[in-house]
C-alpha cells in the first residue's frame, strides 16, 4: 500500500489526534523501537490508535526482528478501509478492531485478543516484550499504571515494555512541567513503577494536522521496573498520599502530613529525610518512603476510603 502525500493531506482525524505523516519518519520510529530487540526473532505487537496505518505499515515491514502479528485497536470507522487494505497486503498479519469503546474496554480487549491468540507465551517478569501504544494521554497512562500494578491485560503475559508517542504539550507537562499538579502526580506514579527513556523526536513538519503550535511527537519508552519502588499493593495508598501532598504543594511536609489522617504527624520521626521540605518538592524516593511508613501504620484509613478519597479529588479535576 502506497501512501501518497495527497492521500495523507486528506486524512482527517479528531484535532486531538496527532499522527506521523511521512513514511521515512515512521520507519525511523520503528527502527528506534526495534534497536533494543535484536535478541528476539519475532515479535507480537499491540498498536493503539493506529489511524490510517502509516506506522502500522512500517511495523509490518520490519525485518530485524520481524513482526509475527500486529494487533491494532482504532476507534475511527473512517480508518477501516485503509487498515483492511494493509491487512490484505500483509496476508493477515495485521489483526485490527474498529470499535469506539472506552479506553478501559480497549485495555480489556487487548488482554482478550492476546489470550485468544494462543501463541503468545507468558514471560518471566524479569524479561519483556513489546506492545506499541502509538498515542498517549494522562488518563490512558493512569489506566496502564492500574493494569500494571494489578498485572492485568497484556501485563498478565509479563513485564511488557511500552513505546508511546507523546504530543509535545503533553510531553512537556508530564515530564518537564512541575507546575501542572495532576500531571506531576502522574509522573511520580510512573517513576515509582517504570523507567522512562526518550528515544527520539518526530519533527513538526512530519506530523498532521499542521498547526502553528509545536506539534512534534516524542517517542518515549516506558519499561516496568523488575522491582518497583513500592509494592504494587501500595499503589492506591501512594496515589492517596500524592493527592494530599499536592493539594497544598508549598506547605512543609511536617504540616501537610496531618492531612493524611488524624495523628499522622506521629510518623514524622520514622522518616529519614528533612521534614521541612515543601510537599510538592518531594522526590519519588521520599514519597515512596512515606508511603511505606504510612502503609505500615496501624491507624491509617481503610484502603476503600483511600481509593474513594483519591477518585473524589481527581474526578473533579477530570470534569473541569
TrEMBL record:
Instruction: List all membrane-crossing ranges.
Output: none
Q: Which domain of life is it from?
A: Eukaryota
**Cellular localization per UniProt:** Mitochondrion
User: Is rRNA processing set as a keyword in this record?
Assistant: yes
**Gene Ontology MF terms in the entry:** mitochondrial transcription factor activity; RNA binding; rRNA (adenine-N6,N6-)-dimethyltransferase activity
Task: Write down the top EC class of this protein.
Answer: transferase
One BP term from GO = transcription initiation at mitochondrial promoter
**Which keywords belong to this entry?**
Methyltransferase, RNA-binding, rRNA processing, S-adenosyl-L-methionine, Transferase
Supply one GO CC term from the record: mitochondrial matrix
Annotated InterPro entries: KsgA/Erm, rRNA_Ade_diMease-like_C, SAM-dependent_MTases_sf
Protein family: Belongs to the class I-like SAM-binding methyltransferase superfamily. rRNA adenine N(6)-methyltransferase family.
Q: What is this protein called?
A: rRNA adenine N(6)-methyltransferase
UniProt lineage? Eukaryota, Fungi, Fungi incertae sedis, Mucoromycota, Glomeromycotina
